[in-house]
Structure to design on (791 residues):
């Protein structure tokens, strides 16, 4: 291998130290850690497909007569935004698949963020020192929802136009400044001609730039603070156990990007989404049945439907009814979300830093609150389809609405209570997962019985290994680095020795059973020839030790 | 397919062909040492003392930055849109406005059959979002008029603002059987026969009614504009 480029860059940028650390960075491995990655990769797909769309989209409400390949609308007067969306769908090569990928990626993006947030919440990963990243992540969620709504609004079709109308009414409903805000945002009264171009600028420039910046900060802070990890063998508050950045993690994560993109491309190519040619151009006095927004706006729509018709008037002023479900509710939602790490600390008085994750069943209170809140928003989400449900089940609209108004108060506490009980009963017993010791009973020639405690049984240990992974060890290169520095007279704490006391969970007998002995420990598992075959996520001690020792011979 | 194949290949490589560890690494403590923090605070203080010594200059600087901010911000905000003023209180309906369809043609009193419905606009503003009005000729005549509105519905015609008082969607669906108008956005129901009172759903107020008259040539006209602001509520609305 040619090392010249490395020398060249190191002499100018001093990259060796940083890059060495980065390549050797350890990433704890758990499927739920990929949720944030899905969000990030969807964001990349959004940027790519979005740039493509900007080349063909015309953000203007000026009238034009449509003469494209979509025959049913030929000769109709439509806005340029609508016409250009039709054109890029039907007359630009790969335009439709790009547009549908963009829309699907947006839906997946918000979904991945939400599920990622739930993972962070239920495992307690937001605790000190990670509150800042919790705030940044919450901001990213808010922006993603807003960004999705803006993008959804751009084609100027009948359904999204109705959504803009509702957004105008919501802006209007804000006390004191509402009518000014609405006027400044829309450049006058609804609908006006400014809103599509303005939404476009915010959608393609302002929010993506902010999100990219926040995402960078999110990642940089995570990188600096290192990942959290679940409890397990050899895992402590002060170490990180997992795969190395190079090459295992880089390959897995890089490949995962392609997998995410592949799923989004398949959705965009095969599953129709938002066929605006079927809705038609937005005309303010027309409206369609079963008007529904994208899924992440569903809870707001549901809240608008459920909230009673209370309007507060007095002193010559009015607080409109939609202020409560459409302004106050999101405000409280995101306010509480962002304040959660401090709220929880106020109750638990836990000021310690935490790098080990909680199993959700072990923190029953947090889990039950999370489940209750989730249930609340799920009910709101389903309430956004009261009319569709009433139709589907031949019920009266009246009944469905009142059912939801009752359920919104009943389901969350019930869900929380059930979650609490389940978590309590499923919580791990204090000694769960530890190898049990068997009693061995001896009979002497005289017929006398005596009992003796044996070492842990092998099967038990193997189960334990399978559950918690095998013994972690430092990277070979890192060990070398530490060794060299120690020889050079630098007094460094030897990480291997400081860890051994923690990691020696398995009693010594097991280690020494195969003739390989403790020496086998030093060989990184999975190196070519060391038997890390296709099915080796959790190698068992016995067979591996044997193979290793054969290598050595 | 290509993306998926690439993805599977690379992930499989990363998962099965390279060492997985588990490896272990120490976390470095995020917190700096106490002496480092002290040095930081001292450095900060050294700098800020140098600036505080010229406090007048510093205040001047702050004031000019603030003034600059206001000077740039004000025209920016003001050019975004007009002040609302009376904008939300009025529509394009005036005394004597003829009722026209979305294509601009005037509506005669004989145009609508009993049980019919039509979306109308003031003449010269066809298709307007704010002035859109729904004209109905209910199929039975037991209309309960509100006090003071006795003369507003000649020949059984009724005209209501089409903008929902909840969130502003067009109240587009007319159920002739029950004589109700339904807003498809959030399912508010308005009873046509009793002055478009909300009977169901989240809408807080009745739809404003437009007083109608029939001129000598048989065209429908507005006696006057709406007597209250149309559509959803806002702060200045009493």
């Amino acid at each position: 291998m040619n090392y010249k480029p490395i020398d060249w860059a190191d002499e100018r940028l001093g990259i060796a130290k940083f890059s060495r650390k980065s390549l050797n960075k350890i990433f704890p491995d758990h499927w739920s850690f990929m949720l944030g990655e899905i969000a990030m990769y969807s964001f990349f797909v959004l940027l790519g497909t979005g740039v493509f769309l900007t080349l063909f989209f015309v953000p203007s409400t000026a009238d034009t007569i449509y003469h494209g390949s979509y025959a049913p609308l030929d000769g109709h007067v439509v806005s340029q935004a609508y016409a250009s969306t039709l054109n890029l769908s039907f007359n630009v090569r790969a335009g439709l698949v790009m547009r549908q990928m963009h829309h699907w990626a947006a839906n997946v993006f918000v979904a991945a963020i939400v599920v990622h947030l739930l993972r962070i919440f239920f495992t307690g990963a937001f605790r000190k020192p990670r509150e800042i990243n919790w705030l940044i992540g919450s901001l990213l969620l808010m922006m993603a929802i807003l960004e999705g709504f803006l993008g959804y609004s751009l084609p100027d079709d009948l359904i999204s136009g109705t959504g803009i109308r509702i957004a105008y009414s919501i802006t209007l409903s804000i006390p004191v400044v509402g009518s000014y805000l609405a006027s400044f945002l829309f450049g006058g009264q609804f609908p006006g001609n400014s809103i599509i171009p303005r939404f476009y600028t915010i959608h393609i420039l302002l929010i993506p730039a902010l999100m990219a910046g926040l995402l960078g900060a999110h990642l940089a802070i995570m990188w600096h603070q290192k990942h959290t990890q679940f409890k397990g063998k050899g895992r402590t508050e002060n170490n990180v156990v997992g795969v190395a950045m190079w090459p295992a993690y880089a390959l897995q994560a890089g490949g995962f990007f392609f997998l995410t993109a592949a799923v989004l491309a398949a959705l965009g190519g095969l599953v129709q989404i938002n066929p605006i040619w079927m809705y038609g151009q937005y005309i303010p006095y027309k409206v369609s049945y079963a008007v529904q927004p994208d899924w992440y706006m569903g809870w707001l729509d549901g809240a608008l439907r459920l909230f009673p018709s209370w309007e507060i008037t007095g002193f010559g002023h009015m607080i409109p009814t939609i202020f409560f479900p459409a302004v106050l509710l999101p405000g409280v939602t995101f306010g509480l979300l962002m304040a959660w790490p401090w709220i929880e600390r106020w109750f638990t008085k836990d000021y310690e830093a935490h790098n080990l994750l909680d199993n959700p069943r072990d923190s029953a209170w947090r889990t039950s609150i999370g489940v209750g809140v989730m249930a609340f928003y799920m009910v709101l989400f389903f309430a956004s389809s009261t009319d569709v449900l009433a139709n589907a089940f031949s019920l009266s609209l009246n009944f469905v609405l009142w059912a939801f108004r009752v359920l919104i108060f009943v389901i969350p506490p019930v869900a929380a209570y059930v979650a609490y009980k389940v978590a309590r009963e499923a919580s791990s017993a204090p000694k769960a997962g530890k190898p049990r010791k068997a009693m061995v009973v001896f009979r002497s020639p005289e017929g006398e019985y005596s009992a003796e405690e044996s070492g842990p049984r092998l099967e038990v240990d193997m189960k334990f290994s399978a559950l918690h992974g095998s013994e972690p060890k430092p990277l070979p290169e890192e060990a070398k680095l530490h060794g060299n520095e120690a020889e050079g007279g630098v007094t460094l704490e030897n990480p291997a020795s400081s860890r051994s006391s923690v990691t020696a969970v398995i009693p010594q007998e097991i280690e020494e059973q195969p003739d390989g002995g403790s020496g086998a420990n030093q060989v990184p598992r999975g190196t070519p020839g060391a038997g890390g075959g296709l099915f080796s996520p959790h190698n068992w001690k016995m067979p591996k030790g044997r193979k290793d020792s054969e290598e050595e011979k | 397919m290509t993306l998926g194949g690439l993805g599977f290949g690379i992930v499989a490589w990363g998962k099965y062909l390279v060492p997985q560890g588990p490896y272990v690494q120490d976390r470095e403590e995020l917190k700096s040492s106490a002496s480092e923090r002290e040095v930081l605070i001292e450095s900060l203080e050294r700098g800020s003392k140098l600036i505080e010594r010229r406090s007048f200059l510093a205040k001047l600087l702050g004031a000019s930055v603030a003034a600059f901010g206001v000077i740039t911000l004000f025209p920016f905000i003001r050019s975004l849109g007009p002040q609302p003023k009376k904008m939300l209180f009025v529509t394009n309906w005036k005394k004597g406005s003829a009722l026209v369809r979305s294509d601009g043609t005037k509506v005669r009193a004989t145009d609508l059959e009993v049980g019919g419905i039509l979306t109308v606009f003031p003449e010269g503003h066809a298709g307007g979002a704010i002035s859109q009005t729904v004209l109905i000729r209910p199929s039975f005549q037991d209309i309960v008029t509100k006090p003071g509105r006795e003369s507003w519905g000649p020949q059984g015609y009724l005209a209501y603002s089409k903008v929902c008082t909840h969130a502003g969607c067009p109240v587009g669906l007319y159920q002739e059987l029950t004589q109700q108008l339904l807003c498809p956005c959030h399912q508010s129901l308005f009873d046509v026969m009793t002055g478009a009172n909300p009977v169901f759903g989240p809408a807080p107020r009745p739809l404003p009614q437009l007083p109608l008259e029939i001129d000598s040539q048989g065209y429908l006209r507005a006696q006057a504009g709406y007597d209250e602001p149309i559509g959803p509520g806002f702060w200045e609305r009493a």
About this structure: Confidence is low (pLDDT under 50) at residues 458-468, 484-553 of chain A. Strands of chain A lie at 26-27, 63-65, 77-79, 229-230, 239-244, 312-314, 317-319, 356-357, 437-443, 449-456.
